[in-house]
Specification:
- It is a single chain.
- The protein is of the alpha+beta class.
- It contains 16 helices and 31 strands.
- The protein folds into three domains: 215 residues, Phosphoenolpyruvate Carboxykinase, domain 1 (3-Layer(aba) Sandwich); 279 residues, Alpha-Beta Complex (Phosphoenolpyruvate Carboxykinase, domain 3); 86 residues, Phosphoenolpyruvate Carboxykinase, domain 2, CATH 2.170.8.
- The strands form six sheets. Strands 1, 4, 5, 6, 7, 8, 9, 10 and 11 form a nine-stranded mixed beta sheet that branches.
- The protein starts with 8 loop residues before the first helix and ends with a helix.
Length: 613
């Protein structure tokens, strides 16, 4: 399809403007076909940017190595450019939109010289779903095109739904590395210096502009940029929820089904939980989504969720058959790997993959030959795979994908889970006393900083409200208000009893010997079983100052967990909670100033009184 064949006048005009500004050699409108995907992979292989993996070991798969300066989200180069700084809030980087666009236009000028401009129409969510949204990404990266083929629904069929005047989010991207006549990338990952990288969001005009990075969510603009930062603003304005949440389908031994959504900061086992294999006999867990949930009220008053993505963009290191067997099965074929090790026999390898690398040598993520590790460990700073190495794999390949994962109507959510990595204080599981108490719990989510992260903050709690800290597209105090408003809307319409129940979970409690008390992984199904029952008001429970906890014996103990261990996992640490609440009052809530909802101030006072007894 050519530009002048497009039906949508606004889309046509925007593409022409981008073409004039960035001066590519040619323009291609992506059709979403398998042949197009194969062609993008061939382009990157021919440019020595990708290596085809051993077909007998990893069919249809390739490995990329990015530039060492381009390996992760760059939060200090990520902006929410609202007209008023206060609308971006205290947790976002802000810049005036006019000033930011002026800076970026200067960078974009001629940035696609020597390259092809690809136009990717994509749908976040099942095409035609009333919960889905359409975006169009302009990029000069065939790596981005190939990844977007996996992560979203792309191509001509999206343009058919968009029609002549439909709403779309314009997503502008350039790697920021124009080519001189006759020049090629020749194996060097194209990107701009760190000082020229910008990942910019314009919430009022619903635009995303990204420059200088070709990596992950910085470049796959449907992922965090649209699905969370812009979608959270759309959700606020339109009365729904766009959340950094997995979606699980749980079936009990009697064949009853419930769907649960969960929000967890990074390094808290989110992907592992999304693909959990239950150890509890008779229970079944299936995956609807591993990262993002969009939810709207249905006619019956329940919140219905879709996974707006079509693939998994997962962290590779630490993924193995024990931690996430289903992920390992998913990535056996048709997968794009980035920044993993390359073995002598043409396969991928990373730290904690569960086995040593075969052969004598391995090529690390920087392209350097190294001795092949005989175990799956490497000294810190000498990793074969980058700690943020990734796999991009189609969700449909996941052996535990639920048949409802592509239902355009979504699935009804019965419970929300919030959790962080907390060695002390926070119990294994805790149910909120009410919707507003649940919002309070979500607003104080955090993980304790370890020595591996920031040495001068060890032992402190890094708050990540709703696991949305890097992804909320507006003032987080107003985001809390939006969650409260969702509850009030349900009350006004007589749907309060249909709202999801809210739980706080913590798989990471430690004993005095600094060892984890709870085994986690598949054993978490024992906690999910109690949550499942609590959604119907069943399951033995106990009212406490912090919420509703399982009564003794309510959760079946896994092997190796004693009665004393369970008592510790479910103990209400009054002194610890007093310190927790003091930290929230002194260090966390004051950040939000006048935007902090009065309802959360009241919840803070109420829990303080309950803790005093």
């Amino acid at each position: 399809m050519k530009i002048d064949e497009l039906k949508h006048a606004g889309l046509k005009r925007w593409i022409e403007e981008a073409k004039t500004l960035m001066t590519p050699d040619s323009v291609e409108i992506c059709d979403g076909s398998a042949a197009e995907y194969d062609r993008m992979i061939k382009i990157t292989v021919d440019a020595k940017l990708a290596t085809v993996l051993n077909e007998s070991k990893r069919p249809g798969s390739v490995l990329f190595r990015s530039d060492p300066s381009d390996v992760a989200r760059v939060e200090d180069r990520t902006y929410i450019a609202s007209k008023n700084k206060e609308d971006a809030g205290p947790t976002n980087n802000w810049m005036d939109p006019a000033e930011l666009k002026q800076k970026m236009r200067a960078l974009y000028k001629g940035s696609m010289r020597g390259r092809v401009m690809y136009v990717i129409p994509f749908s976040m969510g099942q095409i035609g779903s009333n919960i889905a949204k359409i975006g169009v990404e302009i990029t000069d990266s065939p790596y981005v095109v190939a990844n977007m083929h996996i992560m979203a629904r792309v191509g001509t069929k999206v343009l058919d739904v968009l029609g002549a005047d439909g709403f779309f989010v314009p997503c502008l991207h350039s790697v920021g590395k124009p080519l001189a006549p006759g020049e090629t990338d020749n194996g060097k990952w194209p990107c701009a210096p760190m000082a020229d990288k910008y990942i910019s969001h314009f919430p009022e005009t619903r635009e995303i502009w990204s420059y200088g990075s070709g990596y992950g969510g910085n470049a796959l603009l449907g992922k965090k940029c649209l699905a969370l930062r812009i979608a959270s603003v759309l959700a606020r304005d339109e009365g729904w929820l766009a959340e950094h949440m997995l979606i699980l389908k749980i079936t009990n031994p009697e064949g009853e089904v419930k769907y649960i959504a969960g929000a967890f900061p990074s390094a808290c086992g989110k992907t592992n939980l999304a693909m959990l294999i239950p150890t509890l006999p008779g229970w079944k867990v299936e995956t609807v989504g591993d990262d993002i949930a969009w939810m709207k009220f249905g006619k019956d008053g329940r919140l219905y969720a879709i996974n707006p993505e079509a693939g998994f963009f997962g962290v590779a290191p630490g993924t193995n058959d024990e931690s996430n067997h289903n992920a390992m099965e998913t990535i056996k074929k048709n997968t794009i790997f980035t920044n993993c090790g390359l073995t002598e026999d043409g396969d991928i390898w990373w730290e904690q993959i569960g086995y040593g690398a075969p052969g004598k040598e391995i090529i690390d993520w920087k392209g350097v030959k190294r001795p092949a590790p005989k175990t799956d460990k490497s000294p810190k700073g000498e990793e074969i795979a980058h700690p943020n190495a990734r796999f991009t794999a189609p969700a449909k390949q996941c052996p535990c994908i639920a048949k409802e994962w592509e239902d355009p109507a979504g699935v009804p959510i019965s419970a929300f889970l919030f959790g962080g990595r907390r060695p002390k204080t926070i119990p294994l599981v805790n149910q909120s006393k009410s919707w507003i108490h649940g919002v309070f719990m979500g607003s104080i989510v955090g993980s304790e900083v370890t020595a591996a992260v920031i040495s001068d903050q060890v032992g402190q709690v890094r708050r990540d409200p709703f696991a949305m800290l890097p992804f909320c597209g507006y003032n987080m105090g107003d985001y809390f208000k939006h969650w409260i408003k969702i509850g009030k809307t349900a009350e006004e319409k007589g749907w309060a009893d249909k709202l999801p129940k809210i739980f706080f979970v913590n798989w990471f409690r430690k004993n005095e010997q600094d060892k984890f008390i709870w085994p986690g992984y598949g054993e978490n199904s024992r906690v999910l079983a109690w949550i499942f029952d609590r959604c119907d008001g069943k399951g033995k429970s106990l009212e406490t100052p912090i919420g509703t906890l399982p009564a003794a014996g309510a959760i079946e103990r896994p092997a190796g967990v004693s009665e004393q261990d369970m008592a510790e996992l479910l103990r209400v640490d009054i002194d610890g909670w007093k310190k927790e609440i003091e930290d929230v009052r002194k260090n966390h809530y004051p950040k939000f100033g006048s935007h902090l909802p009065d309802e959360l101030k009241s919840e803070l006072e109420a829990i303080e009184k309950r803790l005093e007894g």
